[in-house]
Structures are given as C-alpha cells and as structure tokens.
Design a protein that fits this description.
By secondary structure, the protein is mostly helical. 83% of the residues lie in helices and 0% in strands.
Length: 283
Amino acid sequence: MSVDGTALDVAPRSARNAAQDDGAVTLSKIGLGRRLAHVFVALIVAAIVAQSFYVVQARPGDLITGVHGMVDILARAMPPAWSEAGDTLWPALETVDLAIFGTVFGVLMAAPLAVMAASNVTPARPLYYLARGVIALTRAVPDLVWALLFVTAVGLGPFPGALALSVHSIGMLGRLFAEVIEDMDFGPVEALTLTGASRLQVFTHAVVPGVLPSLLGISLYRFDENLRSSLVLGFVGAGGIGFRLLTAMNLFQYRTVSLLLIATFVLVMAAERGSALLRRQVA
C-alpha cells in the first residue's frame, strides 16, 4: 500500500514539475520577445536620429573650426554699450506690452471658442466642429507668418506683432482651455442641474469656478511664451527689442547687440519669476 501511495504521489508531482517547466519556458519566450522588441525599437530610434543628422547636414568639424569667428564677435561686443541703456527702455516696454496685449486678447477670444470646442459643454455639435476648426487653423499657422500678414495690412510697428500674438494664442489657449473643461469634475455641475438651475447658472457657478485656476495658470504660461515670441517678431518689423536688435546687427553694432541681449535676459527672467509667483497664488 505504501508503494502504491508513493507512486500515486509521484505522478501528480511529476505533472506539477512539467507544468512549472512549461510555465518557465513560456516566461522565457515572453522575456525574449520583449528584449527583441526593445532592441527593434532602439534600432528604429537610432535610425531616426541618424537620418536627422544627415538631413540637417550636421558638420561638427565646421563648428569647431569656426569657433574663432564667434569669439571675435564676442570680443567686439564687449563691453556692452551702457551709455545706450536709456534708449532700450522704450523697446523693452514695447516688448512687454506686445506680450500683454497678445495674451489678454488671446484669452478673451479663446475662452468662448474653448466652451464650444469642449465636447461635454458645447451648445451644439456644428459649433463644436466650427470651433475646433478655428482653433486648429490659428494654431497651425506660426505667429511669424501671422506677423508678416498683419505687417502687409497695417504696416510696420508693434501693432501687427500684437495682432499676430493674439491670433496665434487663440489656437494654443483654445485647445488647452477645451481640454481642461473636458477633464473637469462634473459633480458640482450635476448637483446644480438637479436643483433646477439654468444652463447659464450651471456654467457660472459650477464650470467657471472648477476650471478657473487651471485657466489662469495656462494663461500665465502663455504670457511667458508670448514674451519670447515678441522678441522674434521684431525681426519682421513688429517693433520691440527684436526690431532694435536686428537693426544693430545689420549695422554691426555688436556692443549695442550685447546690451539688448542683456535687457532681453532681464525681461525673460523677470517674467518667469513674476509668473511663477502668480501661479502659486492662484494654486
């Protein structure tokens, strides 16, 4: 009887061992498949990076041999033309005001579009597709192209730059605002709806308070982006420090260029710190 019992005990044990071996083989195959997949993805990424080097015609040797040219320009730019510091105040103010105008009017125009472009609060489906189309169009066209279009319409100066920043901000802010509205907590909205509140009351007392902090934070980030963009827009005649910088570079006034770059650095850092403080207050 003991021999038979032992034989009966060995059989299930052998079956268990066989099952464990099969499981180990399966796990080994899965691990091998994952490793092969990782290697394949790594090769694809390496090929993409390699082709980017080829397409942009990267020549590190030329950069090394051309360092002396950059050093020569830096030597000519020192010391900065501190005597012209007073003349940079107005272009700096124009640059900041370009960002303020572009952000404020971008928010004002993007907010109603975002409401229509949010699938959970849009008044009608045709308005949803219309708002999404406008947002996509204003986002797809770069702000530099918008600036060129407005320069041909209203002439040189800060106004075309401000219009370009406003229009481009509509696309970026409209998309982000719509995503915030779509991801909001709908608990307060449902609670007010059950009390018999009107659609406008639900929007003003539930939707707006729920998304306002996020919208303010996004708007402040956009102000930072608009401040940097306003510097580039000056290169197409949109005023600000960018236009003054382009003029100084064309006239080979490198000491003035270094002064304007320092002023640009101060503006960007001040805007970043101010936006960070405001975002903390909003949060």
